[in-house]
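The step that takes the researchers longest sounds almost clerical: writing a folded protein down as plain text. The outcome of that step, for a single protein, is printed below.
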Amino acid sequence: MDSDNYSLVDFIEYNDPDIFKKAHFFYEYAEDYIAKKYFTYFRTLLTSCNPEVTILDRYTGKKKKMIMLASNNYLGLSSHPEVIKAGQEALGQYGPGLGGSPLLCGYSALHRELEEKLAAYKSCEDAMVFPTGFSTNIGVITALLRKDDVVISDRFNHASIIDGALFSGAQFRSFGHNNTNKLESILKNTRDKGKLVVVEGVYSMDGDLSLLDKIKNLTDVYNARLMVDEAHATGILGKRGRGTIEYFDLEGKIDIVMGTFSKTLGAMGGFICSTKEVINYLRFYSRSYFFSASLSPVIAACVSKAIDILEKEPQLRENLWKNINYMKENLTSLGFNIGQSHSAIIPIHVGEEITLRKMATEIHEKEIFLNSVFYPAVPQGQARIRLSLMSTLTKSCLDKALDVLEEVGKKHHII
């Protein structure tokens, strides 16, 4: 099979009475893809996600040092000494897990301490934590909505939001990215329905912001509830780094605030902040919460300490923004199309998938660790390189990456 003639979507749409047949053909596709050295996924890390990492290279079988520009560990907190120490102490006290759901035996003092910190950090009455960000969005949306309700989603929302909306059984409506006119039209046509509007504060593929002030005004006018996913905004945006909601001066005014621990907070898991009544309800009706083993107490301790560090070390965020602005200015100066990014996520628009495949291979060989994103994760013809910057990256790391991007970009006529 010639993988150049196919994309991932071809295997999503493949139908056959033998449900394993698609796996057979996809295996052939992947084998050819790997043979052409296009495969820059599942790179095996041998170190933590610091500015420079070591991987075990699948093509050479040898260790390879690379500059990391693909991790969502935005402030470098996953390797912060105080975070590691907090995790070690929790491991000694509780072990790696508690062997049950939060509702039964999986709820510790560390979990409650973390929830209280999150609620205060997000200016809400209460909070609850989930094992993953994906299960957070699914659990909240499916618990709150019924078949006669309507869930209204920005078209660029994360897959977990889309899946939660579909799994809920509610009527699903979407509007073009940040198209507030279309959103208002949907709200007008669903006046008599229970409504939940869901948006992201920062969108993960473009790094741009939700038009949150305008969307909040519309939900107020049309009596809809608003849920904001702050996964990529927490710790980064706003004067104190409390997210898009702080950036738009809307703290304490959003119905449901969602976030994750797997980005700025350097661990894994998710959380929801809302009123005491809503959180209490979700504890009993969110299936992905009470039918899952609880978040590891080790993770709870690490995240709790990470929040403390966010508050006392603003220089981490300040340095991140220096790196963001430096890269945006230089990429734009070189002639790259980086869209409207206003976050630590910077896309470099390439266009055709086959061009990006070749570029990704060459960038990898030149020891720069970047992510490449294709259809169906992004619209067809909008393939891109996705940079995720960290505050701990040095200028020399950024300059080396810029040199490589300039060389490869010119070779493939992107600039």
Observations:
- The mean pLDDT is 96.
- Residues 314-334 form the longest helix (21 residues).
- The domain at 80-312 is CATH 3.40.640.10 (Aspartate Aminotransferase; domain 2).
- The two ends are 32 Å apart (CA to CA).
